Amino acid sequence: MVLGHITSRKNEIIQRLRALASDTAFRRAEGEYLCDGHKLLYEALDKGAQLRTVLWKETPGETALPDSVRQYTAPAELFDYVSPMKNSPGPLFTLTIPEEAEPVFPRAILLENVQDPGNVGTVIRTAAAMGVETVILCGACADVYSPKTARATMGAIFRERIIRCSADDVRAIVDRNGLKLYGAALSDRAADIRALDLRNSVVAIGSEGQGLSKELLGLCDGELIIPMSPGSESLNAAVAASIVLWEMAR
């Protein structure tokens, strides 16, 4: 049921949606995040994500929503003022950030200091496609609940287990699950990824510019490398993670 038509930028709903779109600290404090678009809305409903508020562009959509969801409409100009996406057809909607339960998993991909939202979202999407259900975000990674990251997951954010932790916690999480920890690195110690059994492991990927930190590499049981043609630059983090995820699945 649509509760009202909003016409003012000063409306508290409008201000709240803009804050959820732009402010990581506000999202964390409120336990709520913002997504955009029909595809993500359908995925959220299909996976049982907890919707809170929906803002439709000009007219209500025909999608059946739970009675608990607060629905509003806004004229196109006001909707575009709120939306983090340019020329979005909408809708905008908010969801509850799920609680992080005690992690138990058979394998995972780990990202350290990967700050690009598109890369983080792509890795989450690829992990879901390869059947690797856990993604660990360590250090200064992009906020998984920012609109750009969530959009890049193409709905995988609603079905993947996302664990956020510091480097100090990584070893304990890996040991608790009885797994091996490998770090992707350009070093003489790194083994060819094709020679390793990655079925019960966590593989860590660093940023394209800096790679993994010495601190995290020091926690690893071993290092691996993706063979490339001589003279090639390091791979983009999302591309490297995709290759690793394929090998884990294979």
Measured by DSSP, the beta-strand proportion falls in 15-25%
Task: Report how far the terminal alpha carbons are from each other.
Answer: 47 Å
C-alpha-based Rg, rounded = 20 Å
Outline type: elongated
Number of strands: 12
Order of helices and strands: EHHEHEEHEEHEHEHEEEHEH
Determine and state the CATH class of the largest domain.
Alpha Beta
Structural notes for this entry:
The radius of gyration is 20 Å and the shape is elongated. The protein is an alpha/beta fold and 250 residues long. The chain has nine helices and twelve strands. The mean pLDDT is 93. It has helices at 12-22, 24-30, 38-46, 76-82, 117-129, 147-152, 167-176, 214-217, 237-249; strands at 2-5, 32-36, 51-57, 70-74, 92-96, 108-112, 134-138, 161-165, 180-184, 191-192, 201-206, 222-225. The relative contact order is 0.14.
